[in-house]
Amino acid sequence: MARTAARDGGPDVYAASDAALVARRPGVAKESGLVVDAVRLGVPLIVSDHDPALTKALAGHDWARLFPTGDGTALADVLRDLAWSPLPPPAESAAAGLGVPTAAEQTAFLTELKDPC
What's the pTM value of the predicted model, to 2 decimals? Predict the structure, then answer.
């Protein structure tokens, strides 16, 4: 059975990363959890501006770089700059500032039994 980073070494994968890249098509607002995981684990972000709410939440943070969705040249520029000037990690308080639940809160939410009505 193939091992997955999320199950076997997710935090190690993030810890070895200079940044996490999230790029989507315009209008695709659903995130896969990558943004939440990266911020929680202190990994800087490179994110396309596909989701206006996410763009607004990340704008102005020194640990996040935004680029226009579908603009390969802009993404290449961000990646080039990253090679010469790494982004700082998000502070431990960054996740709370973005409204991201703690790992314990997320675990409780995912494991809480729901009343079927």
Answer: 0.75
Tokens representing residue 19 in the block: 């940044």
Instruction: Please check whether residue 58 is in contact with residue 45, taking contact to mean a CB–CB distance below 8 angstroms.
Output: yes
pLDDT along the chain (117 residues), means of 10: 46 80 77 80 91 89 95 95 92 83 78 71
Give every strand in the sheet of 64-67, ordered side by side.
Answer: 20-22, 45-48, 64-67
Residue indicated by tokens 């579908």:
70
User: Comparing C-alpha atoms, which of 80, 83, 100 is closest to residue 39?
Assistant: 100
User: Distances from the Cα of 56 to the Cαs of 51, 53, 72, in angstroms?
Assistant: 9, 5, 21
Q: How far is CA 10 from the centre of its chain?
A: 13
